[in-house]
Amino acid sequence: MGCGSSFPDRESGQLGRPNSENGGGQDAKNLRVKLVLLGDSGVGKSCIVLRFVRGQFDPTSKVTVGASFLSQTIALQDSTTVKFEIWDTAGQERYAALAPLYYRGASVAVIVYDITSPESFSKAQYWVKELQKHGSPDIVMALVGNKADLHEKREVAVQDGMDYSEKNGMFFIETSAKTADNINELFEVPLIFAFFSDWLQIAMRVLEGVCTDVRRRSGLKHPDPMEYDMGGTTMLGLDGTMLMFDLKLDGNWKLMIDAIQEMQIFLQLV
Amino acid sequence: MASSQSDEPAPEEREIDITTSTEPGSDVLWVRTGSEQEMDLPSSPSSSGYAGEGGGSTSATTGSLIEIEHDEEVEQEQMRIQNQIDEISISDSNTSWIPGKRHQDEDDGSISWRKRKKHFFILSNSGKPIYSRYGDEHKLAGFSATLQAIVSFVENGGDSVKLVRAGKHQVVFLVKGPIYLVCISSTEEPYESLRGQLELIYGQMLVILTKSINKCFEKNPKFDMTPLLGGTDTVFSSLIHSFSWNPATFLHAYTCLPLSYATRQAAGAVLQDTADSGVLFATLMCRHKVISLVGAQKASLHPDDMLLLANFVMSSESFRTSESFSPVCLPRYNPSAFLYAYIHYFDADTYLMLLTTNSDAFYHLKDCRLRIETVLLKSNVLSEVQRSLLDGGMHVEDLPTIPQYRTSHLGQHTLPSDSPESFKEANHDIGGPAGLWHFIYRSIYLDQYVSSEFSSPISTRQQQKKLYRAYQKLFTSMHDKGIGPHRTQFRRDENYVLLCWVTQDFELYAAFDPLADKALAIKTCNRVCQWIKDVENEIFLLGASPFSW
């Protein structure tokens, strides 16, 4: 299928928590995410949203006028709910000047291109630049190559998308609204960065500290990563840890957050 | 085929002598604005605008629409294609019309394209195609250049071209700054109607882009506008389709969905609340009919703007999928600025449009909609709307006979059960020689019209279109500035008796059986007017009309 995903550059400082001004009434149990979809016309922005919100796919193309507003609430495993407020913008040129109307105050921007159309990939880069210049500095950006099911017609290599997004500190994923491939992941993963970036950054710092310590003590350049079951007792006497989670497993990343949290408490204790 | 008509042995229709006269006999008619002085047009079209100037290499074929061909083989081929087209249009009439561009593969070289009865073009004053009803705009670059050449040729003479008549074709021009609009039609519609249609097409373009588009042409005369109209084919094709069924396109009035007075009041009251909270216009519509509408103080909504806005919303499928917020321009309100429209469909037919000047108002308008929705549900407005859709509006069979049986309800089927005799008598002189088939009543004061439901014998789409065209012609002749305004007109042909009656307060257009008696028809018209007066509470939006301010 050729769907790939990559993490953003951790040091880029692009990640931030959602704007408190628009995420009004944000409490730990009920989160609100304002998300905007941008990209050339015909790349499938509306199809992605309708697949996510209604589980439908309509192959007849309906041109979006202005912007459509949809919302979807998802429940996480720990009964936290996340309400997505999605602006699905029109890709037509005449609406380009009006885009700030919709991306202003958004915490996540999803920039979509069509993997069969290099023009749409250039247009996506235009949007990235536009957001870097005029968007909120805290906005989390995701680059999405849609129509991944049309791999025989592919004209934009996975690597190109990955390279570009890495350079710009964006999350990257290839999706297919038609087959529903990676659609839920698309909406879940930027969320991690939008809401849990604090945790991630702490985790990175902790890990770096631990690794440096291990390296110093062992004299090894690259200590062998060892897998352990996470738990207070197993961490005792540990020199290093490697955390892995599967983006495609529903809620899997939540476990990692728990692990980091646990680890931090543990490290504070010793 | 060559474009230099005068060089060839000319059959009689070929004698396109371009004159500036307005004699009805001449094949080509140049109607001019402004000066009355004779224009020095060359007698040989080979040196005329489209062959000699801007037409360039494409002129060899593009001039052909104004020519009538007499080659037998070509004629046979055309007959065959015409038959095909007829077949297509007959089968079309039985299915519901689907918006969108057709015959994208055609261009001005295709015979089928040239045989189409009604073409619409939008082009820039540098000759760049912007929109064409049939065929791919890009393939029609040469043809557009020809049209541009005709316009600029006449403009160079300090004049402007309005109409070219060639055989059964009329070529109507409308110049709007850097935008040229052209209609080429063999439908025999009056010039005024076709021009009005071009005005509406221009208005529709403004709804999408505003007049600020002119600035792009000031900066760059060769500016290509087609990308800016990307994805709007359905908006234009649906508007052009409405030229053959929607009386609002020539009456310049809007129509309401029939509803009980109380129901419409309930809808109006909740809309008024939103208008008081900073919304410029709040409109609740069912398809192209108004349920209720209110405007903020001193703001007035022109019926043409309503037509164009409703067409824009209904022809854009995406509005049905979810609530939307989109820039729109109301050309009669302010052609140079965008307003912002919040659009939400309550069901497949009923939708709400809230217009504001504030681009940040989305969440406020969304809240307004939630409040409106609650009230509409509580007061059963939405279910009443669906019921009205099923019942339809005024049926000619229900025309009351005897004044004392008058009722304030629409139609006899809502009469109380103690007056069944009026129901029977209602059909007394419907059908037969005095039979009333259909009518349209336009209230001048309210800017609203009501049209009776189509019933036998005007039952097929083809017959309805024919009657629509007859009304259109009648309207034009009644409003002809040179002759009118007429008070009454009685016209009989093999299809109908048409009766039109214009007063200060209303205009009535009625179609009768072709054998209808004149005196009886007039009597029937009086009864129609009385009937409308009796039910005006239900068929019109009364009071608080933003038009009357």
Automatic annotation (TrEMBL), chain A:
> Which UniProt key words apply to this protein?
Nucleotide-binding
Q: Which NCBIfam families match?
A: small_GTP
Highest classification ranks of the organism: Eukaryota, Viridiplantae, Streptophyta, Embryophyta, Tracheophyta
Region Disordered: start and end of each range?
Answer: 1-26
InterPro entries given in the database record: P-loop_NTPase, Small_GTP-bd, Small_GTPase
Name one matching Pfam family. Ras
Q: Name one GO molecular function term.
A: GTP binding
> Does this UniProt record's set of keywords contain Nucleotide-binding?
yes
Q: What is this protein called?
A: Ras- protein rabf1
Q: Which domain of life is it from?
A: Eukaryota
Q: Where is the signal peptide?
A: none
Automatic annotation (TrEMBL), chain B:
Domain of life of the native organism: Eukaryota
* Domain FUZ/MON1/HPS1 third Longin positions: 435-535
Region of interest (Disordered), ranges: 1-61
Per the record, the GO terms for biological process are: protein targeting to vacuole; vesicle-mediated transport
Q: Which InterPro entries match?
A: FUZ/MON1/HPS1_longin_1, FUZ/MON1/HPS1_longin_2, FUZ/MON1/HPS1_longin_3, Mon1
List residues of the FUZ/MON1/HPS1 second Longin domain. 278-370
- The FUZ/MON1/HPS1 first Longin domain sits at 118-239
The similarity comment for this entry is:
Belongs to the MON1/SAND family.
What task does this protein carry out?
Plays an important role in membrane trafficking through the secretory apparatus.
- What PANTHER family would the database entry show? SAND PROTEIN-RELATED, VACUOLAR FUSION PROTEIN MON1 HOMOLOG
Q: What is this protein called?
A: Vacuolar fusion protein MON1 homolog
- Source species, please? Pisum sativum
